[in-house]
Amino acid sequence: MRKAEIQVNYPHYYKNFSCIGGACPATCCAGWNISIDDRSLNVYKKAGGAFGSRLRSAVDFQHARFKSESGRCPLLDGQGLCDIYNHLGKAHMCRTCRTYPRHMEDYGNVHEVMLSLSCPQAARLILLDSRPFSLHSGVKVYRLSNRQARQAGPVPGMAHVFWVRSRLFHMLYDEKYLLPVRLKRMLRSFSGEDHWLEEWLSPNAFNKAHMARRLAMLFSLTPVCDGWEEFLEQSVDILNASSNTPEAQSSFLKGCAKQDYLFVNVAAHYLYMYFAGAVYDRDMAGKVRLMVFHVCTLSALSYARWLMGRPLEEALVDSAWIYSRQVDHEDVNLQALEMILKQ
User: Fold this and answer.
1) Can you provide one Gene Ontology molecular function annotated for this UniProt record (predicted)?
2) Would strands 65-66 and 59-60 be described as parallel, antiparallel, or unpaired?
3) Has residue 144 got a pLDDT over 70?
4) Which of 114, 130, 288, 335 is most buried, taking the most CB atoms under 10 A from its CB?
């Protein structure tokens, strides 16, 4: 075994997260599959007593995940809290449940941790902070085998990817330009050519025909969460309704401009979350396109909530965690979007 020092990067708000448990408007224990790591599976197989029997009956050992009862984890109690936590303690929760909404990306001798937008409380923390995004770093010491230590070395090209990302953050926060122009400049920094996404950043991007085309792409995604298709259909119906007038579009855009940090935060979150992965696939342009796609899509979904009478901040937060559960936690959907954006 060898000691290895790993640099850990994290956003300025990361350590401020605290789960609100049963008060959360959307429990993370319902609506999707919860995978179980091998260590936890072994613990659950051996758990004793009446709760141990109940625990095993709630686990699909063949597929390493919890079973679902009416879309909910069977170990969720009446107050919306986890019975594994109640009976066995946090240490015996599976890795997914113990760490969510925290997430880590491994880049050799650099780890980047973040919060997932799919958690309503994390979404509020990420999106409603008016301060510019900033990255903090620390060092964590691990005891690794020789093989693990070799894998924890510097990843070739990582320094360059981080440098490019820092330049993109500079462009994102360049207040000489309105946000749509900043995003266009970021798109063109790689190809120098028009991409069809630029149409989504135009002043007429909120008219009914444009909105219908924009959200139609989402119907092709594999449903992940209960209620996603109903949410999407409702959004389309609202955007096609008579309330979506040019005057409403203008009012919404003025509100977005006045509180542009909201959608800047969306861009910053996805830029941090995705871009460093280009060190492995070399697709920097694709990472920026995906970020812009998410910003534009969330602006459309938020506009629909806003037309229903929701304040802009709440419209964005609600749209973001629902959308993130559908997109960020399903590789098939991310890959499908990446293919669409290459066209």
Assistant:
1) methyltransferase activity
2) antiparallel
3) no
4) 288
